Amino acid sequence: MEPHRRTTRRTVIARALPALVLAVAATGCADAAATSTDGEGDRTAELLVQVTSVHEETGMTLLEGPTFAPDGGLLVVDVTAPAGEPKVLRVDTGSAEVEPVFTHGDGAYTSAQFSPLDDRLYLTDFAGGRIDSITPEGEDHTTFFSGDVDGTPMQPDDLAFDEAGNMYVSDSTGFGDPAWEPRGRVVRIDGETAEATVLADELPAPNGISFREDFGGLWVGQYAANRVDHYELDEDGTSVVTSHAAIHFDGGTSRIDSIAVDAEGNLYQAVHGQPSIFVYSSTGEHLATVSVPSEAAEGLESATNVAIAPGTTDAYMTVSGEDGGFVYSFEALGEGIRQSNGG
C-alpha cells in the first residue's frame, strides 16, 4: 500500500464532512482468523484485510456500511472516496481479495443495505441528502429518494428495512451542533412509492438504526447524546407508539455510530473515536467489547459498523483511521440476520 497521510481525529472529520464532500464533488492482506478472547467480556478482532489508504484528495478514508451481497461477498462503502475512485467495494472474506464495485458520481455514502423488495443495494448519501440504489454488481445507478421531508432537507445516515421493504432512515441533521439544539429525525420511506413520513423529530443527531430481531421495534442511536433509544412501533410500522432511553454509552470524547442486532437480540454498538464495538443485551447488559489489537489501535480511530454473515457467527467490522480503512473479523455472540447485515 502507499504511505498514509496523517489526518485529524474522527470528531473533527465528522464536523467537516459536508464541506469535504462538496470539495470532492468539485474536483498486502492477512487471512481471516477466529477471534481471541482476552477475558470475560473482552474480545480481540483479527485483521482480515486493508481495503483502502488515505486519499490524497480528501486527506482521509472512512469505511462504512458492511453488508453481504447475494453471492456472499462483503460490500463496504468508502464515505470520503473522491470522484472517480471506488465508493462501493467488494471484499472476499475467504481470500481477502478486494475489488471495486461502484465508482460513479459524487455521493458520500454512509450506509448500505439490500432491499427485500428488489434485492438492490440502497445507499444513503449523507451530503447529497438522497438515497441511491444499484444492482449487486454496481450497475443501473438510480436515485430512489431525494428532496425535502416536511419542508426540511435530510442528512440521511443509516437505514433499516422492515420485512415489507419499507425504509427507516436516521436523519442526522444537526450532527455538528451542540447537543441542546436537536434537529435530527427518524424518517420512514415507503418502499413502493418513496413517500416520506417523519416518525420522530427534535432528536440529537440520530445515527445508528436497526430493527429488533422480531421487527416489533427500532433501536436508534443518538450520536449527540451517546444513548440508544427504543421505539415501539404500531402494527403497520407507520407511527411510534412509545419510546424510551434504553442504553447510555459512557464514551467520553467518543460517540456512538451504527447499530446491528443478531438473532439473539443483542445490540452491536459501533463507535466514533475508538476502534471498538460494544455488545449489549436487549435489556441493556454490557456483554462484550470487541477491539482491534493494541498494536494497531494507535492508527485507527473509529469502528463504524459491523455485519454478521447470515446464519453464522462470522462477524466483520469496518475500522478506519490515519493508517487506512480495514476490515477486522471476530466471532459474534449470536447468528447473523437481516438486522445484522447492513444499515
UniProtKB/TrEMBL annotation:
Domain of life per record: Bacteria
Q: Which InterPro entries does the record match to this protein?
A: 6-blade_b-propeller_TolB-like (IPR011042), SGL (IPR013658), SMP-30/CGR1_Lactonase (IPR051262)
Q: Which residues form the signal peptide?
A: 1-32
Entry keyword annotation includes Cell membrane: no
Limits of the SMP-30/Gluconolactonase/LRE-like region domain: 64-318
Stored Gene3D superfamilies: TolB, C-terminal domain
| UniProt KW tRNA processing keyword | no
Pfam families noted in UniProt: SGL
Keyword annotations of the record: Hydrolase, Signal
Q: Which family does it belong to?
A: Belongs to the SMP-30/CGR1 family.
Q: What is this protein called?
A: SMP-30/gluconolactonase/LRE family protein
